[in-house]
Structures are given as C-alpha cells and as structure tokens.
Amino acid sequence: MGKYKKRMEFDAFTKLVSKIKNLPLPGEASQVKMSPPFRLELMKQQEQAMKHSKNAGVMALFYPDERLYTKLVLILRKTYRGVHSAQVGFPGGRYEHEDRDLEVTALRETHEEIGVPISDISVVKPLTRLYIPPSNFTVYPFLGVTNKTPSFIKQEDEVEDVIEVPFGHFIDDGCLTSAIVDTSYKIKVEVPAFKLNNHIVWGATAMMLSELKDLLKQGS
After folding, report:
1. What is the CA radius of gyration of the chain?
2. Tens of pLDDT along 142-155?
3. Domain presence at residue 43
4. Smallest Cα–Cα separation from 91: which of 152, 176, 147?
5. What's the number of CA atoms in the CB half-sphere (13 Å) around residue 160?
6. Does 198 map to a domain?
7. Cα–Cα distance between 176 and 193 in angstroms, integer?
8. What's the mean per-residue pLDDT of the chain?
9. How many C-beta atoms surround the C-beta of residue 220 within 10 A?
10. pLDDT at 180
11. H-run or E-run covering 29
12. Alpha-carbon torsion 212, 214, 216, 219, what sign?
C-alpha cells in the first residue's frame, strides 16, 4: 500500500482535508480513467438531451468510526425498474425547486437517505460535475465531512444497505479492478471498477470516486 496506512486516524484526515480545500480539481482527466468504454457513444446519442438534463446533488461523506478511524459512506440502492437499480452510489438525489442550490440538495438527500443531520455535515468543496447518459442527469458531487460518528438510518424504500468504506482501502490502488456488466445495448461489456467492501462500483460513481481519490492523493 506504499505510504498509505490500512487505517487513517480521523485527526490526520482532517489535516489532509485542510490541505486539499484550495487545491484545483483533477477534473475530467481523472474521471475518464474509470469511464466505461461505451460512454462516448452514449454521450453522442444524448447530445440534444444533455441540454435539458435534470440535476442531482450527491455527497462524498467522510466520518470517524467508533475507533476514530476515517471512513467513507456509500449506499447500495434498492432493486427497482430503473437504470440505477441495485447499484452502489453516493447518498444524494434529484434537485427540488425548494432547494436553494445543488449543495442543499446533496445535504437534504444525505439526511433523507442515511439519516445524517444536515447540521453535522461540513461541505469542504464541490467536485467536478458529471453527466449520466442513461438517466439524463447531471450530477453535482460534494466532498463533505462530519466530525461525529453517525448513527445511520437508511431510507427503507430507497436504500438496501449502508456501505462503510475504510479510507485506507479506498485510497489503495489495490481496490481497482474490472467487471463485466450489462449495458443499455443489452450486451455485456468489461468496465473499469472499484471493489469496495466486496461491492463492485463502476460507471458514474466510479468516475466521481476517481477524482475524489486523486484529489486526496494530491494533498498527501
């Protein structure tokens, strides 16, 4: 694992966050490292739809566990008739008209989906937005931190499971892998992926995780 420890004390993580707060984002160059091979074709097909895409806000939330080691929370979505059925993602969701902005959306949805109080979350910075062709959403991710160990309460109709990923596992390149997945073309394709807590994470979430990981490494 090189210089990255299997576990990172939360105090050390908060110092890392203070370093990256004003760093430039790695951006699309980082996201594209985990892009599925069919993404460019889907982008071309959705060129007109992109102009009228729906917006969503999601939260990459880090927190201390009971032993004060740093973790990142992800969620496993319920199985349903939709493009993101049974996939791993960040807590978050669709922008609503009453939301002041996409940051508020990410905070509100994080509270609704996993029960973390909005007042407990400090938003460090926005990450690079990402368009998702299958659902015609533009997703705005935010890096957030809570200093409290959360008591997660999952939204039963939306969230199948809460996934608590140790920082050291996420930052280690050993979690990079590939997977064979079903696509919108009804064919199976090999895609780059993360393997986190025995879950395969690919597509848009993997692309956002890639930027997040590179940003954290910049500050190390």
Report:
1. 17
2. 999 999 999 999 99
3. yes
4. 152
5. 12
6. no
7. 6
8. 92
9. 10
10. 93
11. helix 28-31
12. negative
Q: Is residue 118 part of a domain?
A: yes
Query: Which one, of 10, 96, 102, lies nearest residue 59 by Cα?
Result: 102
Q: Can you give the pLDDT at residue 6?
A: 67
Query: DSSP per residue over 176-211, as a string?
Result: EEEEEEE-TTSSEEEEEEEEETTEEEEHHHHHHHHH
8 Å CB contact between 74 and 58 = no
Scanning the structure block, which residue is given the tokens 């566990």?
65
Which residue reads 């969230």 in tokens?
159
Evaluate whether 210 touches 31 at the Cβ level (below 8 Å): yes
Q: Tokens 């930052």, residue?
A: 171
Number of domains in the chain: 1
Pairing of strands 176-182, 159-166: unpaired
- Helix or strand run (H / E) with residue 48: helix 47-50
Closest residue by Cα to residue 129 from 117, 138, 118, 119? 138
Rounded to two decimals, the pTM is 0.93
Tell me if 1 is assigned to some domain: no
pLDDT digits (tens, 9 = 90+) for 98-110: 999 999 999 999 9
Q: CATH code at 116?
A: 3.90.79.10
Instruction: Give the single-character DSSP code of 80.
Output: -
